[in-house]
Design a protein that fits this description.
The relative contact order is 0.12. The chain is built from 8 helices and 12 strands. Strands 1, 2, 3, 4, 5, 6, 7 and 8 form an 8-stranded mixed beta sheet that branches. The chain has a two-stranded antiparallel ribbon with strand order 9-10. By secondary structure, the protein is of the alpha+beta class. The protein has 2 domains: 2-223, PmbA/TldD superfamily (PmbA/TldD fold, 2-Layer Sandwich); 241-353, no CATH class.
């Protein structure tokens, strides 16, 4: 597949791009869901294609095709360059990529038990048993599901990067809903939308859906009659791990995304309240609080040998005396060009860079 990706990059360069990269992807996935003791859905899917990025002037062009053939790859490269050229007709600020050494090699995520070797019958029995148990212990609606992804990707860039990665991801989720006279309550396990990782079926076994089903249902039922939290000015609050994860995601995760800080991204989650002028001086939270973004953690969904932009994953402090940010090479370079601190802490092209104190 390197030849296919190379053909796409060469086509983009021939069409005028000063930088280009291409990714060939082969993905197969599986999803299964059960409700109230009955298996309701089973899906399996396979897809493949080529995606290309091309840079002309200060403008990017993107194009993808659902075809792995060399002719389709070349067309994708040409179209990506055409999109970039059209975008460049409206001049933007100068854009240079942070310097980066070419990356090469192969990496595969750890998979102790191949999820594709586990029969559909066994997977279905697990979900049916968990939902049946929740119903028996007070849930009016009991749902459980699992998902599996198997991704093989090849990356080639015009700077010489050639990376081949095979990543297996899977996980599961379940929820119990209890309906009362005036309200409805729900408990989820192992958290909202479940838990997933770059691991094999061993992750699902470790979750022990069947072993936690009764507790989840009983907790959902108990919430219907639980006393309301008293209205007081101040108190200590203990957050469950899943709620804490969501709080960090919304309050810190989105805020430190550099494209939001620069105003490039303004989606449903908003932009960011951080400002580049606050680098190195802003205290984000208590002195006792540290938040670390760790893309090197084995089994994490972000775990890989190289990011989609051919950079090694990093471990960085997102929130201590001053926050860090998540950025691309273009954002990192632009941030340093605009920063009053540019110079002493010149970027090295890492996935994320710490705010300099």
């Amino acid at each position: 597949m390197y030849d296919t990706a190379t053909a796409a990059v060469e086509a983009a360069l021939a069409a005028g791009a000063r930088y280009a990269d291409a990714r060939v992807m082969q993905i197969r996935s599986e999803a299964m869901a059960a409700r109230n003791g009955v298996l309701e859905a089973t899906e399996r899917d396979e897809r493949a294609g080529v995606g290309v990025r091309a840079l002309i002037g200060s403008s990017w062009g993107f194009y993808a095709v659902p075809d792995e053939g060399p002719a389709a790859a070349r067309r994708a490269g040409e179209e990506a360059a055409a999109v970039a050229r059209a975008s460049a007709s409206v001049p933007g600020k100068a854009l240079d990529l942070a310097p980066q050494a070419p990356a090469t090699g192969f990496w595969s995520s750890e998979c102790r038990e191949d999820p594709w070797a586990v029969t559909l019958a066994e997977k279905g029995d697990l979900l049916e048993t968990a939902t049946r148990t929740m119903r028996e212990h007070g849930a009016d609606i009991a749902e459980a599901s699992h998902r599996v992804w198997d991704t093989h990707k090849w990356l080639v860039s015009s700077e010489g990067s050639r990376v081949d990665q095979h990543i297996v991801e899977c996980g599961a989720a379940m929820s119990a809903t209890a309906v009362g006279e005036r309200e409805t309550q729900r408990r989820s396990y192992p958290g909202i939308r479940g838990q997933y990782g770059t691991r094999g079926w061993e992750l699902v076994r470790e979750l022990d859906l069947a072993g936690n089903a009764a507790r989840i249902a009983e907790e959902a039922r108990a919430l219907l009659t639980a006393p309301e939290c008293p209205s007081i000015d101040a108190t200590d609050l203990i957050l469950g791990s899943e709620q804490m994860a969501l709080q960090i995601h919304e309050s810190v995760g989105h805020a430190v995304e550099l494209d939001r800080i620069l105003g490039w991204e303004a989606a449903f989650a908003g932009t960011s309240w951080l400002d580049l002028a606050q680098m190195g001086s802003l205290r984000f939270g208590s002195e006792l609080m540290n938040i670390t973004a760790d893309a090197t953690l084995p089994g994490a969904l972000a775990a890989s040998a190289m990011t989609t932009r051919a950079r090694p994953p990093t471990r960085w402090t997102s929130c201590a005396k001053a926050p860090g940010w998540a950025s691309s090479r273009a954002e990192t370079r632009r941030r340093w060009q605009a920063s009053p601190l540019a110079g002493p802490c010149a970027p090295t092209g890492s996935t994320a860079s710490p705010w300099c104190a």
